[in-house]
Amino acid sequence: MTVTLADILAARRIISGVADHTPLVPSPFMSGKTGAEFLLKLENMQPIGAFKLRGALNAVAHLPDGARGVACCSTGNHGRGVAYAARQRGLRAVICMSELVPAPKVAGIRALGAEVRIVGRSQDDAQVECDRLVAEDGLVEISPFDDAHVIAGQGTIGLELLTARPDLETLLIPLSGGGLAAGIAVAARAIKPSIRLVGITMDRGAAMHASIAAGHPVDVDEVPSLADSLGGGIGLQNRHSFALCRDLLDETCLVSEAEIYHAMQALYYEDRIIAEGSCVVGLAAVLSGRIAPTGPTATILTGRNLDMEMFTRIVTGQDIELGAHIVKGQPYGP
Fold this sequence. Notes:
Shape: globular
Strand order of the largest sheet: 1-2-10-7-8-9
Largest sheet: 6 strands, mixed
Helix content: 40-55%
């Protein structure tokens, strides 16, 4: 194991008082749909609006002495977390992103004082610029997922979940590069080995799902998605998150853009919560019948940094264009 429960416990001490201990609340609607208690971990209530603050704070706390600044490649929320953590330390932060990152996420990062570089149409393109900054400007890279300190920081969510509800039987975890899923899985397996852990992602450009199926990291084509925070590759030289997700997750599950659209509507109308498409993949998997909970179940609402114009179109049942792909609108109905 490249990350242990001891690392996560140490991270909890480091981030305490900055990355808030977030509520775990019941969803009567989802509980009624499944016949099992269904709980929502409100990471969208973090100071930056996303769980990524946990890992960023822990990683910045472990920077080498004399670090000149930090750089990262991000689909938005990790960059926001790194910008926040770097500002606390008075460090330069440069966030590299592709053209697929929604404008509100870019604006949120700039508002925290970070420099933003928009490069190309994929995370791989943005990573090239990040690598250049490390090599030429002497910045320290903080990976959004393949960094042991980042993974340990995200793992504090698992500690909170099982401290609050040791009877949880299933965790439905949004799955992208695997930092969140790996961290939660390390904590959850150490505390309750029998717990069912399911990584859930969109069915277009799902890098970790495809890599686990192949048995090694693979490249995927990035496409626009309602779950934009789950986009991007995992790195062909992945050191940490791939092996942890492969070994600790019980399964992975894919959901469609239409199912994500419906789950965003359901969360808004039934639980009165505004959240990114990436947050609702757990709900989408259950509402579509792909996952059937059999006991107390929780999922993580990972962030709220979304394009409100697009969100308004979704909750009012309008069509959504995702590049050449169109998600047909429909009025909400449970």
